[in-house]
């Protein structure tokens, strides 16, 4: 059966409130519950399957880039082993592919689309099904101060990024694949809105995205564990030509083959620095 070139799916977009309302998600301690004043609306979008045309996207043009390299660590069942084995190989990989001089991984999330999985434990989350960007500029700078406080001032004088490395684990991700939006198709002044993440010990910021028919969505259908995508969440190089971030979301692909295994994936989030 031939690969579909485009698919249509429903994506959950932000409905911008009237006035200057501060949007927030608040974590309820000891619970999976989230309190929020965010309103989302489903909108149908077209997503291009770029299988066979992976070279059409890059980190600095679209904000994301696909690669093929099998991981040495393949179990992904134990946090300590992930940090001891998968973190170092991922750091080396990001350095090799970006030319960065320093990479600091500050967390990771494993996602499982398992029936009845309502947990928000980073080791067992469901796929994220709203169009979002992980970090704002303010939150990105705060991450540097939080995770490398001794060198923050000097590191912030040069170019830095936040990049996620996302890959399927165990089997191909036909179920709930990841869609990414070409940065060049986003009106960053009007369509992207900061949202406060209220944790018990600190506040972070993410961004949600309003719907636009101009957005150009891409995905790599049936990504295997040997394939991965680098997702730019922030770039301090604000020259007007370089992609700063890429909105993304998991989605229900209507062409998912019947009986496909439920999605399992891991993403590591890294501060990426340049000399």
Largest sheet: 5 strands, mixed
Structural class: mainly beta
- State the end-to-end CA separation: 48 Å
Low-confidence stretches: none
Strand order of the largest sheet: 1-4-12-9-14
Percentage beta strand: 25-35%
Write down the overall mean pLDDT: 93
Shape: globular
Q: How many beta-strand segments?
A: 15
Rg on CA atoms, Å: 18 Å
List SSEs in N-to-C order: EEEEEHEEHHEEEEEEEE
Which key terms come to mind for this protein?
275 residues, mainly beta, 5-stranded mixed β-sheet, 3 helices, 15 strands, globular
Describe this structure in words.
It contains three helices and 15 strands. The chain is mainly β and 275 residues long. A five-stranded mixed β-sheet has the order 1-4-12-9-14, with no helix packed on it. The chain has a five-stranded mixed β-sheet with strand order 3-2-10-11-7, covered by helices on one side. The longest helix is centred in the N-terminal third of the chain and has 20 residues, at 79-98. The radius of gyration is 18 Å and the shape is globular.
Summarize the structure.
The chain has 275 residues and is mainly beta.
Topology diagram in text:
Layout: E1 6-14, E2 24-27, E3 34-36, E4 40-49, E5 64-68, H1 79-98, E6 102-112, E7 132-133, H2 137-147, H3 152-155, E8 160-168, E9 178-181, E10 192-198, E11 203-209, E12 217-219, E13 227-235, E14 248-250, E15 264-273
Parallel strand pairs: 2-10, 4-12
Antiparallel strand pairs: 1-4, 2-3, 5-13, 6-15, 7-11, 8-13, 8-15, 9-12, 9-14, 10-11
């Amino acid at each position: 059966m031939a690969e579909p070139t485009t698919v249509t799916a429903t994506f959950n977009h932000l409905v911008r409130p009237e006035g200057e309302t501060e949007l927030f998600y608040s974590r309820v301690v000891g619970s999976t519950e989230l309190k929020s004043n965010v309103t989302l609306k489903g909108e149908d979008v077209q997503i291009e399957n770029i299988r066979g045309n992976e070279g059409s996207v890059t980190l600095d043009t679209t904000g994301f880039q696909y690669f093929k390299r099998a991981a040495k660590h393949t179990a992904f069942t134990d946090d300590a082993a992930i940090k001891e084995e998968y973190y170092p190989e991922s750091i080396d990989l990001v350095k090799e592919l970006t030319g960065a001089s320093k990479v600091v991984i500050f967390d990771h999330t494993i996602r499982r689309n398992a029936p009845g999985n309502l947990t928000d434990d980073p080791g067992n989350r469901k796929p994220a099904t709203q169009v979002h960007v992980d970090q704002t500029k303010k939150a990105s700078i705060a991450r540097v101060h939080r995770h490398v406080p001794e060198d923050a001032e000097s590191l912030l004088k040069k170019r830095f990024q936040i990049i996620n490395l996302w890959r399927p684990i165990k089997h191909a991700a036909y179920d709930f694949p990841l869609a990414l939006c070409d940065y060049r198709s986003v009106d960053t002044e009007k369509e992207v809105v900061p949202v406060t993440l209220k944790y018990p010990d600190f506040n972070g910021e993410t961004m949600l995205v309003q719907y636009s028919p101009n957005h150009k969505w891409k995905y790599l259908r049936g990504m295997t564990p040997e394939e991965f995508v680098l997702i730019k969440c922030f770039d301090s190089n604000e020259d007007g030509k370089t992609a700063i971030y890429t909105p993304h979301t998991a989605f229900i692909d209507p062409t998912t083959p019947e009986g496909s295994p439920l999605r399992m994936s891991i993403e590591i989030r890294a501060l990426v620095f340049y000399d």
